[in-house]
Amino acid sequence: MATRSERFPSSKEQPGRELQVHGSARLAATLLAAGLVDVVRLALAPTLVGTGRVLFPQLPSAVGLELTEQSRTASGLLLEYQVTGAAPVQDYAGVTGLA
């Protein structure tokens, strides 16, 4: 049986506009894990609720992201990241006092 990336190897090379995923973290995680995602755009509308949910719990490993664009809206932030491959695991540079 063919893997997802084998079934869709030329999706990124086809002409046309970009493919966007809205509201499906499971589909987005599947596409990320298959290496079919170049850019991640997140719209953040912060709310303090005391607990949280992992955005992409199905990813088999951490995905590296590089912030390429940011803008502020009336209700939050729009962030655009370039997918860089495997994420390095380390402390946040310049952040102290989180313990």
Indicate the low-confidence ranges by residue numbers: none
Rg for CA atoms: 16 Å
Number of strands: 3
Order of helices and strands: HHEEE
Helix content: 10-25%
Distance between the termini: 47 Å
The largest sheet is:
3 strands, antiparallel
What's the helix count?
A: 2
Q: How would you state the average pLDDT, rounded?
A: 77
The general outline is globular
Strand order of the largest sheet: 1-3-2
Q: Which structural class matches the secondary elements?
A: alpha+beta
Strand content: 25-35%
Plain-language structure description:
- With 99 residues, this protein is an alpha+beta fold.
- The chain is 13% helix and 26% strand.
- It is globular.
- The N and C termini lie far apart (47 Å).
- The model has no long low-confidence stretch (mean pLDDT 77).
Topology of this structure?
Layout (H helix, E strand, L loop, with lengths): L3 H4 L17 H9 L5 E6 L18 E10 L4 E10 L13
Question: What would a concise description of this structure say?
Answer:
With 99 residues, the protein is α+β, with helices and mostly antiparallel strands.
